[in-house]
Amino acid sequence: MGLSACGGGGDSGASNTVRVTLANHVWTENIKKALPEFEKQTGLKVEVTQLGEDQLSDQYNVKLNAGSSDIDVMMYRPLQEGKLFAKNKYLADLSDQVKANKTWDFSDFQAGPVEATTHEGKPVGVPIITEQEVLYYRKDLLAKAGLSEPPKTLDELKAAAAKIKAAEPDIAGFVARTGKSPAVTQFSSFLYSFGGDFVDGSGKSAVSSDAAKQAYAYYGGLIKESGPANVSTDMGWPEAMAIFTQGKAAFYTEANSLYKNATDPAKSKVSDTVGFAPFPAGPAGSKPYNIPSWALGVNASSENTGNAWKFIEWATSKEQTLAQQKSGVPGARTSVWANPEGTSTFPKDLVEAIAASTKAGVGHDRPLVVKVAEAREIVGQPIVDAITGNDVAAAADTANAAFQKFLDDEAK
After folding, report:
1. In the predicted structure, residue 5 carries a pLDDT above the cut 50
2. What confidence tens digit (pLDDT) does each residue in 227-238 have?
3. What is the band of 7 on the pLDDT scale with cuts at 50, 70, 90?
């Protein structure tokens, strides 16, 4: 798959107006406030189109498919649309741009997010917002159970969850997402920590590998044995988070980006007792995902690619990343996480958990395919089967056959 080259300032249709399409997000609100500074520095004008996620996807489908040049910069989800956009050659190759400015420093971006915004060895996006999976836990319940620190391994997590549930029958030892599609992203860290992945090195389905079967059995078993009574199998993060913040669970694995739901007294009954820890290690170590939930790319059909890159370079600079992170938006720059100012608004133990996650983090939290929603339904089914006590190995074998067919169809 070829990717269009992203030209310099000599674009034939270059304009002093950069047309930027962004999603509804705190990051977007922050960047809009800072725009006058960029416009003053460069003499360019930025025209922002801001849309909800569904509207954004619809607009991209229509305009990018038509080869429209009226979008220059686009905010996109690397793990949801990245493969589709790259396959369809919607994203410009940014190889020359990321090397050009040593002060901007592309090497400062974390490896996992960069992996997710790279296609066939070429950078096609710059990560702007990151997420890692961490362990949320109740300090008071651990102390009551005689546990001096949060679990460091998945075996310790299982033992601690069982101990607390046995002592406090009204409180779940562990809660997490249970819906077959929503659970996939959070299950992924368990899968990697057992030594598995959704596909193997040759691109074949790997959801029936020994490691995958162990991970499915562990995740589903932990919820079945130590989870909430009569647990539902259609919980996404809002339902799982509600159980934790209402004081009904001791441990919860979830994206760090949602942490304010647990620490804000207006939203959480347990805000003063919440702790954070790195994702517990499995047989293959602690391997949580470390992903960019959003990135900026240049529309390959834009006639204003030079100025589009100027906007991206500014919006992803060390200064803007630091300002964003101070407002609670976790970025992808190593230097900003190393800067005390960059972590001043985050809980100290969460900063430590994130630092651990970025070292061994895996750059995807779902199958890297074009039709992501369909793939999640397939690989998520064994999670539900494990929670409901069905034969996990058989469920994984069935899912593996279905996922391999899906991969074969997608490769045609």
Report:
1. no
2. 999 999 999 999
3. very low
Residue % of the chain over a pLDDT of 70: 97
Q: Which of 297, 300, 332 is nearest to 317 (CA)?
A: 332
Beta bridge partners of residue 46, listed in sequence order: 18
Q: Is the CA virtual torsion 301, 302, 303, 307 positive or negative?
A: negative
DSSP-based three-state secondary structure for 192: helix
Q: Rounded to an integer, what distance in angstroms lies between the CA atom of residue 347 and that of residue 366?
A: 28
**Rounded CA gap, 122 and 363, in Å?**
15
Cβ atoms 74, 63 nearer than 8 A: no
pLDDT of residue 14: 79
Strand partners, 51: 23
pTM beyond cutoff 0.70: yes
Domains of the chain plus CATH, in order, are 17-131+291-360 (3.40.190.10), 132-289+367-411 (3.40.190.10)
The amino acid sitting at 409 is: D
Tell me the backbone φ, ψ of residue 222, rounded to 5 degrees.
Answer: -65, -40
